[in-house]
Amino acid sequence: MRRFSVVVALALAGCAAYGPSPSPRQQPSQEAESDLRLQRELEQELSGPAAQSTPRDCARACDLSSRICFLADRICALAEGQPAQDLSHAQCRDGRARCQRARALVKSRCGC
Q1: How far apart are CA 96 and CA 43, in angstroms?
Q2: Contact between 52 and 59 (Cβ < 8 Å)
């Protein structure tokens, strides 16, 4: 009987180790979507109506452009290793296009 109790105790202890797993990390396409939303906000700040009506702050504009391109790189890094049909690949293309627009805009306005 004692042997049975030990076996049951060990089995229960082993099951406790396999309890609920921690919450899974976001899917790459969800992380990319979050970065893409932030990238859109930065792009809006860089080229939206407020940017047209206020005096240009080239230091800020160059920083925004750099951040937009950094996010594009992050989005594309998340897409690596994902299936070709995964949403993150389209998000990567969109992010790269936003980066190119931001660079062109800042280059024409500020030369950076």
Answers
A1: 12
A2: no
pTM of the model: 0.67
Query: What's the pLDDT tens digit per position in 15-64?
Result: 444 333 333 455 766 888 888 898 889 988 888 765 665 556 888 899 99
The tokens of 54 are what?
């206020």
| Dist. CA 16–CA 56, nearest whole Å | 61
- Which residue type sits at 45? E
SS (H, E, C) the chain: CHHHHHHHHHHHHHHHHCCCCCCCCCCHHHHHHHHHHHHHHHHHHHHCHHHHHCCCCHHHHHHHHHHHHHHHHHHHHHHCCCCCCCHHHHHHHHHHHHHHHHHHHHHHHHCC
